[in-house]
Please model this.
Amino acid sequence: MIPKSHPRYESLILRKKIAEGVEKGIVHITGLIAHGRGEAFDYLLGEKTQSFASKAARAAAAFMRVAKKAVISVNGNAAMLAGKEIVKLGKETNAKIEVNLFHRSRERIEKIIRLLESYGGENILGMEGDARIDGLEHDRAICSYDGIYTADVVLVPLEDGDRCEALKKMGKIVLTVDLNPLSRTARMADVTIVDNITRAIPNIRKEYKKIRDAEKIIREWNNEKNLQQALDFICDRLRNLY
Ligand code: PTJ
Model:
């Protein structure tokens, strides 16, 4: 048991969740490494949603609002850390949810679908694997025809840069959540929320409910500028920590 009084309580709880995810066969073993990298950036970001991340969550919500067909892609880490919130977001935005894994295995997809169903998720895609993301080799290209393949807007948190690029080449609007503002995914996406997925998904939900003029938010959105703000924030924090 981690005592609530521990100064790093929340971070330790997330570690515990990810480790449990590995034990249950939901999180891939390399998900631990991805989580560690994320943790390091979260530390630099002050483990709080900063203003640039709130703005990005608003832009992501705006794109989801105008989407003809939005799909939320879920991997092992995302399911374990934010599965419940993702199911709620899917319902509120009318977006489909697809379990889509980098290290694909039918067993893990099945387990993640069961987990999301236990949170109230319905008609979760992923098992069929009846389409391929153009221009990618290997199993990580496999996706669902009714999901990612035919979506116009995809929310792909904690995504790999190659796949993000391939989705962009297919003409999709790519929204991502990535604590690392330097990652290829962060730089390739149309909207990058530089924040922890545990905070970013509830923020998209909150912003979605508030949206009045989605087109205006989209017109004024500049992902590069937002990423620069995230980097400037990190640099300032490093300079002024002591
Ligand atoms: O479940 P699978 O098989 O689909 O595999 C999922 C992982 C995450 C293992 C796989 O996609 C992977 O290896 O991802 P990468 O390339 O390591 O990228 C993960 C990115 O997410 C990194 O840039 C991390 O900084 C970031 N990240 C990690 N944890 C979080 C995060 N971003 C937001 N919130 C987090 N909690």
In short: The beta strands are 70-74, 96-99, 131-132, 142-143, 153-155, 173-177, 191-193.
